[in-house]
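Hi there, hope your week has been kind to you so far. Thanks so much in advance, here it is:
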Amino acid sequence: MCGIIGYIGTRPATPILIGGLKRLEYRGYDSAGLALLDKNGLTTFKAVGKVARLVDKLRGDLSPEKHESYTVGIAHTRWATHGAPTEINAHPHFDKSRKICVVHNGIIENYRSIREKLQKLGHKFDSDTDTEALSRLIGVHYKGDLRLAVVQALQQVEGAYGIAVLSADEPNKIVVARKGSPLVIGMGDGECLVASDASALVSHTQRVIYLDDGDIGVITPDSVDIRNQDDEPITRGISELDLDAGAVEKGGFEHFMLKEIFEQPESVRNALRGRIDLSEGNSVLAGMQMSPKELAEIHRTILVGCGTSLHAGMVGEYAFEDVAGISSEVQQAAEFRYRNPIVDHHDMVIAISQSGETADTLAAIRKAKEKGTMVLGLVNVVGSAIARETGRGVFIHAGPEISVASTKAFTGQVAVLLLMALKLGRSRRLSQEHGVDLAQEINQLPELIDFVLKQNDAIAKVAERMAKSDHAFFIGRGPMHPVALEGALKLKEISYVHAEGYHAAELKHGPIALLTPGTPVIVLANQTSVLDKVWSNAEECKARGAHIIAVVTEGHAKTDLTDDIIVLPKCGPLVATIPAAVALQLLAYHVARIRGCSIDQPRNLAKSVTVE
């Protein structure tokens, strides 16, 4: 949510900041702004809407020669939490003197009390935001040392933040700090950058430093000084980014989402590479850092996540119980963190997050650690907070996912969960013979996904018949139930169609009352032991005039019952969840395209949810 980019060096700052903001557009935002600093002080520009509007303002108000004079600046894309999307509420925000400005991701929870105290001191606030309370508080503490003022202000702050701060009186530095909201510093030759996401830095440097919670840094063109809130120096290692600028370009596709759907054979191949032992029917997951004895001593797994990651965990629950014979449960991360979960040292908590920065999932990790439970991370972003805090787990190696609606992260998560289930199963009851069978199926996933992608044009035709409907149902049983939930989520995220996913048996317990003639019902009817039950539920919908779109295993369609068919390759029910999910991704994409929706940046949504 929101995006930060900052630059200090010798090059013109404006194009670097605008380029960074464009890289960060995928995170979701409703306004944008930047502050530029030179010998004459701070100059700011803000705009409601897309970054393009901010660019128009810059072109109209600054000459090319003036742009050249600014070599320091910070910029921001805002996703509204406090106050409507207006220019006044857009970042950066100033202190009372208007010599200090701040860009901020996160939420200052006690901003009201800070605001009231400052108002008693004569401050008149310009905006409705929590961030302005922070910027003015920094100004109150400023006595010539910006870093110290930031430290003192943050000691009075409750909440989450990633911030970058400029002062007109100290033009040779940017002060940055994080707690619960990611920041990464990029190190160049005679220049430094800071961003909330490494994708904004990739065009300028591959050398980065990831800040941890509580870190406060001062960056100059030639140095990085990181300290904690007690002013003690901290050493943070320099990492090399494992991505290139081309990975965050559309590559000829109309939308990032479509590109990322078609990248899934390769992204899943990357998730599996070097991790399958076909001869032993086992998986090789060194990142779990667990011996066979430790694996065998696990009594229960608890999978926590939010949104799409929660649905991946639900597929994992089936896999862990069916393959490994381990009692498993899935919990929404926000629920786990606020309840009093019963866990002990025999349990394993698996935290699932694409970004590795999801606030509720991070809090769930900390809750589990407090109770002495083993915690593993399943994330996509190397260097993310969850990866660092768990210290063990598995990366899915899906590469950058720019579209807000997750696609390849979901299939990568499920693929890795299947590998984890295989490893746990082989440490218990799963025979080598059955392990080899499952390992071979998992290994074929890139080809199984290709099978579905070749139906893109056919699925687009199905979407044409579905796109006029404002409601849709998705139903499935067993491991296809969470796929139904994920399919419904994808459709409502990007097409704004009201869609609900249900266990197929639940329809007649209430939801079927909403069914009207012509309503699309997407039936996940792949080959399983309960296929007859699924068809029975489909018949109940058909009898009420529903438009049945069946997702079936090759050669197993009921043409007398279905209005449209999407075909899956032959594979087992657990593995089939991935090609089925890809089919529903394509269906949602084409419905949204036909309806003319903003596919990569749907309204009100953000890619990385770093606040509660």
